[in-house]
C-alpha cells in the first residue's frame, strides 16, 4: 500500500489521531492545532456570566454545615426545594407530621387549609441571555437552605406550636430537623436515618389547634413574582430558547 | 471535587481531568469551568466558522451562555459534554442563519449553512496560524456532510456515535461521510 493511499482503517486511525505521517493526518493535525490567543477572546465575558449564574450555588469544597444534598443543584432547583420544604413543613405542622414519620395516620384528618402557594420562580439571573456587564459581580445573596428553614421553623418559628407534636415524637428538636430535611430533600440525614422513632403515636394531640392561616413569607422577595409575570417570563424563556431545536437524545435543560 | 488551579493550568488536561472539571463546574467551580472553556472553545469556534463564517464568535458566545445556564442539567462524562455543547452551538448557528435571513419560520437546511460559510472563506484568516487556516479551508471545500463529519470527529474530537447524535444521523453514516471526506482531502493533497 502506498503511504498516501487511504482505506477505511487508515481513515479511522487518522480520525482518531493515531496515524502518523500521512499527509491527511498532518492536515488534520493542523486543523486541530492548539488554540490561538484570539480564539479565547470571549473568556472574560463567559466567565463573568458563569459567576453570575452560579451565585449562591453550593461549592463542594465549602459546603454549608447541614447541606442537604451533595448533588449539583441549580438555583432553580434549589428554589423549588426550599419552597417545597417551607410548604411541606407547614403541612406537617398542620396535619400532624408525626403520622408521616411513624408510618400511620392518627385519625386526625383535618386537612391543611388550602391556600395558594406563594409563586416561586428562579432568580432572574438564571433567565438572562445577554452577557452581564463587565462590572464586578454583585455579592452573593444569602439563600436559606432547607436545613436553615427547618431549624427556623422548629426552633424560632412563630408556628412552633404546630410542630410540638413532631418534636415530641422525634425525641428532640435536632431529630425533628433531621426528619424534616430528609422528608423534604429526599436525602439521607447526616447521622443516618433515625432508628428510635416512637412506635406509639402521641395521645396528646392538641385539641384546639390554631391552624395556620397564612403561608410563610420568609422567602426572599425577589423570588416572589406575581403569577402573571411568572407565566410571561416562562413564555419568553421558551421562545428565546428555541426548544423545538433541542435534540431528543440530550437532557432537557 | 474542587479542581486545583495546578490542574487548570496544566495543558492539555486529559479526558478524565476534564470530566472532573465538568462535574466541578456544575457545582460552581470557576477554575474548573475555565479549564473546560479553554479546551472546548477553540474547537467550537473552528467548527462554527465552517457554519457561519465571520459570525462564529457571536454564535459561540450565545452558545456558551446557554451552556452555562443549562450546565446543571447535563449528565455524563466529558465526551458526552463535548457532544452536548456542540449540539447547542450547532442549534445556535441554525438560529443565527434563520435570523440573518429574516425567515424565522422557514426551515433552514444545512446546504444553506454551507453556502453562507462559503461566501466568507477569507474570514478564516482570523484564525491563528496559517496551517490551521489552510487546513480548515481545505476541509470546508468538501461537501457539507463530509466537512461536518470531519470537523466533528477531528476538531471537536467526537466519536462517530456522538457526532451522529449532533448531526441527527446514524454513526455509520458519519463514518462513511468522514471516510469519503478524508479520501477527497487525500486526493487534493496529492
UniProtKB/TrEMBL annotation, chain A:
The name of this protein is: Uncharacterized protein
Task: Show the ranges annotated as biased composition (Basic and acidic residues).
Answer: 205-214, 230-242
Q: Does the keyword Transmembrane apply?
A: yes
> Which UniProt keyword terms apply here?
Membrane, Transmembrane, Transmembrane helix
Has the keyword Transferase been applied to this entry?
no
Bias kind Low complexity: ranges: 114-124
Residues covered by region (Disordered): 106-142, 194-214, 230-253
Segments crossing the lipid bilayer: 82-105
Which residue intervals are annotated with compositional bias (Pro residues) in the record?
A: 130-141
From TrEMBL, chain B:
* Domain RNA polymerase sigma-70 region positions: 37-103
Q: Name one Pfam family in it.
A: Sigma70_r4_2
Which keywords, in A-to-Z order, does the entry hold?
Answer: Sigma factor, Transcription, Transcription regulation
According to the entry, every stretch annotated as the RNA polymerase sigma factor 70 region 4 type domain falls at 134-185
Q: Which family does it belong to?
A: Belongs to the sigma-70 factor family. ECF subfamily.
Name under which the protein is recorded: RNA polymerase sigma factor
According to the UniProt entry, the coiled-coil residues are none
Cross-referenced SUPFAM superfamilies, in alphabetical order?
Answer: Sigma2 domain of RNA polymerase sigma factors, Sigma3 and sigma4 domains of RNA polymerase sigma factors
The source's superkingdom equals Bacteria
